[in-house]
Amino acid sequence: MSIATTNPATGQVLKTYDPMSEEQIDAAIGRADDAFHQLRGTTVDQRAGWMYAAADLLDAERDEIARIMTTEMGKTYASAKAEVTKCATAARFYADHAAEFLADEPADAAAVNAGQAFVRHQPIGPVLAVMPWNFPLWQVLRFAAPALMAGNTGLLKHASNVPQTALLLEDVFRRAGFPEGAFTTLLVGSDAVDQILSDPRVRAATLTGSEGAGRSIAQIAGRELKKTVLELGGSDPFVVMPSADLDRAAEVATTARCQNNGQSCIAAKRFIVHTDVFDEFAEKFAANMAALRVGDPMDERTDVGPLATERGRDEINEQVRDAIDRGATVLVGGEQPTGDGWWYPPTVVTDLTPEMRMWREEVFGPVAGLYRVESYDEAIEVANGTSYGLGSNAWTRDPEEQRRFATDLDAGNVFINGMTTSFPELPFGGVKNSGYGRELSAMGMREFCNTKTVWVGGDGGGAIGTAGAHAE
Ligand SMILES: O=CCCCC(=O)O
Fold first, then answer.
1. What is the CA 29 to chain-centroid distance, rounded?
2. 113 and 99, same domain (yes or no)
3. pLDDT at residue 468, rounded to an integer
4. Ligand 1 pocket check for 210: Cβ under 6 Å
5. Is the CB of 143 under 6 A from ligand 1?
6. Does 265 qualify as catalytic in the annotation?
7. 107: domain range?
């Protein structure tokens, strides 16, 4: 895939970029390594100053950044602006909390026959970030903010269809004051990832993307013995039980499915509804989906814009056609429009069976699968009956069921009576084929730190580590 900005609303190619040469990549890794040595000599307060400045730039330039994101991948302008604001908030969160997250943690010295013992969190070096186009700023920022605050440097290989967003983030960090090379966008195709990750100066990798991309990065990283964090796909369940507030559940279900034009790893995709409330929920949900306004993503009244890529649009059309051919029922939508741009209408499909692609595959567009179940146990069986385990949602006002869902749903995130989303304060990641490792919170920052045990014998010397005192 060439590196280009192509407007998904029209299919028009607006700007193309030449991929970097091997020599240019090598030089960029060298700058990231130099910047790492520089950053190690800075204090958390210095880095926080730059991170606050980056947050201020994001706020000040929000509308223009959002316009570029919408032009590159079709998300609505309103949601693009919200994404920029969320990035500024997360940047400030890490600037506020890095000293606390990186502080030495005292251990029980006597229990380990030491005069002193503690745990120190130190940066490891340049980290490669392979990121997707769906939240083109947020996915990168949630890696970059904790990484830079810890004293690591970032090398970004962004999706080939969002080069302008990738370059502007590099520019924001540079203008905010971070040293040259602290955060670099590499304009490269995925064929360059092996060279980059094999370079001894690159210490680790984080990837948000498809299961296939995750396997490929993990293979290279395994060969090179490098740490990875993988956030892959999801086929999130949205379970509705008889005690649920059905109006609210149907409203949130619509947002949960169609957010970001249906292209989110944590979008609810499989709606698993107890038979006692199935018909009522299905009617309300289908009505909400049918009422969504599809159109120009720059228009503030639009709910659903185009799909980001032609291939992505064709894929969901094929998944829906496959279900229909095998006997599924379409309640709303289901017809791919003709004309320019990569559009697909909000769609609800029911009567799904295991041999259909929609039953077992992630559907990355505004298409909901509706499943009828007879009991709590069957709801759990269908919800967990997927190779993925990223987010999950359960709707019930019964406290006992709430407790059981929190334990029984096999996913990295469980949201009860709400929609799965991410917060800087909470860890984010998955289980099973949705990946491993966690982003965000203190955990996300420490994924790319050396958690160093320091043990000092009891025969003299002063205290060298104190809780809260050290933050490199
Ligand atoms: O594709 C993954 C989407 C993550 C969105 C979020 O963090 O809210």
1. 24
2. yes
3. 47
4. no
5. no
6. yes
7. 3-232+430-456
